[in-house]
Automatic annotation (TrEMBL):
Key word Ion transport present: no
Coiled-coil intervals: none
Enzyme Commission identifier(s): 6.3.4.14, 6.4.1.4
Keyword ATP-binding attributed: yes
Gene Ontology MF terms in the entry: ATP binding; biotin carboxylase activity; metal ion binding; methylcrotonoyl-CoA carboxylase activity
Residues spanning the signal sequence: none
Biotin carboxylation domain span: 1-445
Organism for this UniProt entry: Fluviicola taffensis (strain DSM 16823 / NCIMB 13979 / RW262)
Pfam family membership, one: CPSase_L_D2
Protein name according to UniProt: Methylcrotonoyl-CoA carboxylase
Length: 494
């Protein structure tokens, strides 16, 4: 494989280009109007224009991308994550064009892309499932009866999607019908499919995912876990590896279950098996993401691996660089996703120009990003600016290092989640390891709690909080946090 096109943008495109250059593989970037001067365009050996700024008119243009592949003699396509990375139809087109899709087969993507078919596939491999039903339901009365049998509280979930869309928590039978209709409506709008299923709601849940890798020779390994319980809107904000709560025995059980999931779908390449861990440390299969994850750097940091390089080697038909007994955990790594969002106003996406953009020192932190000082954060794509990653010998040292890294990450011109990242690092619940996916609900309902934790104005400013003009009294801060501010991002998005 001598030339690879990266069918993506931003920080993941840059991340893939770095590994490909190291492997002496020529790179082709694609770009939209909004990304004409983006770093990934300049760093690739070649770059081609694929359309207007909206992703539907550029990064999702499958035939345009394939046309360039044929013209430029591309032998492989790396899809990154998001966009076309889990599109089985695209993977099939790539294969039919005689190009290697650096990822799993279309069949594995289809099987694991639907939560219900995934559950049915892993059943035969004794992988634990959350109590509930593993078949699609559309009839409200029948669903209500099933929910009563499972026992409230329950979750109604869209079969065809993720990211919290089409998901509703139902506390009692009285609110079931309304919540199911809302879940179906959102599922239909987001995924074109209103099929839902029902699961028992797990109290104090932790989101633990296992990084897996499989080659074409039948070898499958797990590269340990990532703790992804700190979330907002059911989407991850902070990840760490390893988890503070897993014992070696539980880690092995979950890893072996994740390997079984791979075998259930004849998997190839990088994947992530997501589990729910309850208060009694019972774990349950949630879903499989058939791609590289945003948070893959923390796994690389604790295992000393390059997962993008692994993906390419597997795609070329090579054996996995390491088998299970050659893998071990060294140290602790934490990742904070730096989003252009206003934490004081419910994590509403923010837009603007990076008037000042200075990364922390390289010896302090790894920064996977796609911006330079003076650039604008486009309104058309995910508002993530960067991933801030630290490694240390122990979890406590990693937390301290992350706080220093956040303090040394200078961003002005728009609001970011750096302040929230620092709040989490300093919170007793996170430091003790005693937290779950309800962290934001329990500890961040009133975002002005940050002011209590950041004792003085200088510390708050270092955390990236842009203050309101006037007296910075407790009352002023509370008023500022409770104002119903209309997001410019939202205005542009409609």
């Amino acid at each position: 494989m001598k030339k690879v096109l990266i069918a993506n943008r931003g920080e993941i495109a840059r991340r893939v280009i770095r590994s490909l250059k190291k492997m002496n593989i020529a790179t082709v970037a694609i770009y939209s109007d909004a990304d004409a001067n983006a770093p990934h365009v300049h760093e690739a050996d070649e770059a081609v224009y694929v359309g207007k700024s909206p992703s539907s008119e550029s990064y999702l243009q499958q035939d345009v991308i394939l046309k360039y592949c044929k013209e430029l003699g591309v032998e492989g396509i790396h899809p990154g994550y998001g966009f076309l990375s889990e599109n089985a139809g695209f993977a099939r087109k790539v294969k039919e064009a005689g190009i290697k899709f650096i990822g799993p087969s279309p069949e594995a993507m289809e099987l694991m892309g639907d939560k219900l078919s995934a559950k049915q596939a892993v059943k035969n491999y004794n992988v634990p499932l959350v109590p509930g039903v593993d078949e699609a339901i559309t009839d409200v009365e029948a669903a209500k009866k099933i929910a009563a049998e499972v026992g409230f509280p329950i979750l109604i979930k869209a079969s065809a999607g993720g990211g919290g869309k089409g998901m509703r928590l139902v506390e009692n039978v009285g609110e079931f019908e309304e919540q199911m209709k809302m879940a179906q409506s959102e599922a239909r709008s987001s995924f074109g499919d209103d099929a839902v299923f029902i699961e028992k709601f797990v109290t104090k849940p932790r989101h633990i995912e296992i990084q897996v890798f499989a080659d074409q020779l039948g070898n499958v390994v797990y590269l340990f876990e990532r703790e992804c319980s700190i979330q907002r809107r059911h989407q991850k904000v902070i990840e760490e590896a390893p988890s503070a709560i897993l014992s070696p025995e539980l880690r092995k059980k979950m890893g072996e279950a994740a390997v079984a999931v791979c075998k259930a779908c004849n998997y190839e390449g990088a994947g992530t098996v997501e589990f729910l861990l309850d208060a009694e440390l019972n774990f349950y299969f949630l879903e499989m993401n058939t791609r590289l994850q945003v948070e893959h750097p923390v796994t690389e940091e604790i295992t000393g691996t390059d997962l993008v390089e692994w993906q390419v080697r597997v795609a070329r038909g090579e054996r996995l660089p390491k088998l299970q007994d050659e893998l071990s955990i060294h140290g602790h790594s934490i990742e904070v996703r730096v989003y252009a969002e206003d934490t004081l106003n419910g994590f509403i996406p923010d837009i603007g120009t990076l008037n000042r953009y200075r990364r922390p020192r390289k010896d302090l932190a790894r920064v996977d990003d796609a911006f330079e000082e003076g650039m604008e954060v486009p309104i058309y794509y995910d508002p993530m600016i960067a991933k801030l990653v630290v490694w240390a010998e122990t979890r406590e040292e990693a937390i301290d290092k992350m706080i220093v890294a956040i303090n040394n990450y200078q961003i002005s011109g728009l609001k970011t989640t750096l302040d929230f990242g620092k709040f989490v690092m300093m919170h007793p619940a996170f430091q003790s390891g005693d937290f779950d996916t309800n962290f934001v609900k329990h500890y961040f309902q009133d975002p002005t709690v940050m002011w209590d934790m950041f004792k003085d104005e200088k510390q708050a400013l270092e955390a990236g909080i842009e203050k309101i003009w006037g007296d910075l009294t407790e009352k002023a801060n509370k008023n500022a946090a409770s104002r119903n501010i209309t997001s410019t991002w939202k205005l542009h998005a409609h």
